[in-house]
Design goal:
The protein is of the alpha/beta class. Helix content is 38%, strand content 24%. The strands form 4 sheets. The protein has a 6-stranded mixed β-sheet. Helix 2 runs parallel beside helix 3, helix 6 packs antiparallel against helix 10 and helix 10 runs parallel beside helix 11.
């Protein structure tokens, strides 16, 4: 029997809302998947502003935004369902948009109320997938490793380069995973703040940005033009997080406290991006270069950063095989996996691994909001 689910994913890099309609089958304990349709709905400048300001809102305003954003997601999901002629009763699984992630203080919060999504989409919704793990003593992240284990067993490492770089792999029969370091979250925000005219680095037919300005560094062109700042690289590489053993995870609060103070306006943007890219490569290669002959699946927006990928391949040359999948999987793997996690929740199956989050036990995460037709 095939199960159809729409996965919704909003990353910290604020590229937009990823939607993936997926079909899953389980045969003799082995899962398979198909991506039926997928797209990214860019955020308007207003929504980018709302999401960026969410951490500083007061209680009532945050609750209202939680509901408003949920209705916004629901309307987008409903339109997506109708446009692609998907089943009316298709399940929706929403990650939401992370506003606070502080497991040490016992909480994580993703914007986008499940009830509001369900009401506007007129569909059953699974949301709030992280809170159960945090309540059970875990980091609440990463969640994708359950999908990596069950959907991509042919790869030794699953590396995602999104707002943060994270990795998962099997070791001694146990799935291990953790956030490696910030990635596009830092690069994209620096580029947005610089308000660089998109036409300066892109052809007219390729321009994609907010109000005519770049949202990201296309193919790492700006970073490639810069030079290495050794003092900045050393300061980044010496951050204490990198010395911690897993399970461990990162969030916007950590970037605000640890990364931004190191980046000064006196350093030209190309040099900052160049140095930060080398930092990300260094942190990743330190993990995967010690495993000769291993296959590494690379997904997320970073897979399109030519400068980054060239440096990563060079750093692990002859040691690991870097595997770049088809475009659909590069861009929508996280939406695919969160669709899968929602299905596991509905089936009453564990969807969060304590071996990667540090929780007291595996859990079934997610709040279910059933829509009755």
């Amino acid at each position: 029997m095939a199960h159809q689910v729409i996965g919704l994913m909003s990353g910290t890099s604020l590229d937009g809302l990823d939607l993936a309609a997926c079909s899953f089958k389980c045969h003799e304990g082995e899962w398979s998947y198909d991506i039926l349709a997928a797209e990214t709905t860019p955020y308007s400048p207003n929504w980018i502003s709302h999401l960026q300001s969410a951490p500083s809102l007061g209680g009532r305003d945050l609750i209202k935004l939680h509901l408003d954003y949920g209705h916004h997601l629901g309307k987008i999901a409903r339109s997506f369902r109708e446009k692609n002629d998907l089943k009316q009763d298709i399940l929706i699984s929403s990650h939401g948009h992370t506003v606070f992630h502080e497991p040490a203080n016992g909480y994580t919060f993703q914007l986008g109320h499940g009830a509001a999504i369900a009401a506007s989409a007129r569909a059953t919704v699974v949301s709030d997938l992280r809170s159960m793990d945090v309540a059970n003593g875990g980091q609440g992240a990463p969640l994708v490793p359950m999908g990596d284990r069950l959907l991509f067993p042919e790869y030794d490492y699953c590396l995602n380069i999104g707002g943060f770089a994270n990795i998962s792999f099997e070791e001694d029969g146990e799935r291990l995973a953790f956030d490696i370091c910030p990635a596009n979250f830092v690069i994209n925000r620096l580029v947005r703040q610089a308000k660089i005219p998109a036409g300066q680095y892109m052809n007219p037919g390729e321009i994609s940005g907010t109000e005519g300005f770049l949202d990201y560094d296309p193919q790492g062109i700006i970073a490639r033009s810069g030079k290495l700042i050794p003092e900045l690289l050393q300061a980044l590489d010496n951050l204490s997080y990198y010395k911690l053993a897993g399970p461990k995870s990162l969030g916007e609060e950590w970037v605000k406290a640890m990364i931004w103070p190191l980046i000064t306006e006196s350093i030209p943007l190309p040099d900052i991006l160049h140095t930060f890219t080398i930092h990300v490569v260094s942190q990743i290669s330190g993990i995967i270069s010690g495993a000769p002959g291993k296959r590494v699946l690379v997904t997320g927006g970073g897979a399109y950063n030519t400068f980054f990928m060239e440096r990563l391949k060079a750093s692990v040359s002859g040691k690991s095989e870097i595997c770049i999948p088809h475009k659909m999987l590069i861009e929508f793997k996280e939406a695919l996996v969160f669709a899968f996690l929602g299905l596991l929740c509905m089936e009453g199956l564990p969807n969060c691994l304590s071996s990667v989050t540090g929780a007291r036990s595996d859990t079934i995460g997610g709040s279910i909001h059933r829509f009755s037709r």
